[in-house]
Design a protein that fits this description.
285 residues; alpha/beta; Conserved hypothetical protein from pyrococcus furiosus pfu- 392566-001, ParB domain; Arc Repressor Mutant, subunit A; 5-stranded mixed β-sheet; 13 helices; 5 strands; 9% strand
Amino acid sequence: MILDLPLKQVKPDPEQPRKTFKEETIRELAESIKERGLKQPITVRPCGDIYLIIMGERRYRAHVMGGLPTIKAIVQPDGATKEELLMDQMIENMQRENMNAIETASGLKLFIDAGWTIEKTAKTMGYSVETVERKLSLNSLEDKIKKYVASGQIPESVGLLLTRLSSEGQYLALRKIKNKPHSQAKPIIDAILEQEQQVGLFAAEEPLKAKKSLIRSYNMAMLALVGFARKITGDDYRILAHGLDDGRLGKRIAEIDLAIKTLNRIKRELNIYQAAKRLRGREAA
C-alpha cells in the first residue's frame, strides 16, 4: 500500500545502521525530487502515531531539505522481525550508497547481537566469513579512533591493525599515524604492539592470579548454568515457576532478565573477541 504521508508523521529509525549522510548528495537529491518527483517511494512501518523509516532515509532527508510537505511511502505491516528490518536496511544502504567502515561494522554487530552466527550473517550479506570477522573487529576500537576511521582519516586497513592494540596503545598510535597510508602506519603499530607484548610478559603475578581466579569462578558459574539448562525439560518449567512463587515473583523475573542481559553481553563480547582473534591469527600466519 502506497500512501502520501505528512512528512511530520515520518521519522528515521534510531536503530538504522547508517549514521552519516553526505549533505551535498542530499541537496542534489532534493533538487531532483522537486523537479521530477520521487521515483521510488520510501518504505515505512507504523509505530504508534508515527511511521518509522525502514528504507529511504536519504529520500526522506531530501524531502526535509526541500521543504516538501508529504512523501510517498510503502507502508509495511507491523509484523516484520527486528532482524528482517535490519537486513533490509543494511542491504539498501550497501546497494544505494556505501556505508563507511564503522557503520558497516556496527550494522553487522546488530545481527550478532540478535543471535545470528557469523556464518549466517556472512551468507545473508554476501560477505565471506573472514570479511565479516574483520569488519566486526572494528567494533573493538576506541570511540575516538572509530570517528577517524569513519571519516576516512584513518583507512579501514589501518583501523584493523589498531584492533590489536590496547586502548592506550590505540591512542598512542593515533598521534603518529593519522592521515598516513597503511604502508607507513603498519611499522608504527607493530612497534607499539611489540612494546605492549613485552610489558605483558613482565606483568605483576598477583593481578594475573586475581584475574585467573575471577575467570575460574565465572567459568564454573556458566558451566553450572549450562548444566541446569540442559537438565530442565518438559513440566520442569511449570514446576520451577510455581516453586519460585515466594511472594516476590517480580524480583525473580527481574533477576532472570538481568541474567539474560548479562549472558547476551558476554556472548557479544566473545563474538567480537573471536573475530579479532581469528584476524590476528591470519595476519601472523
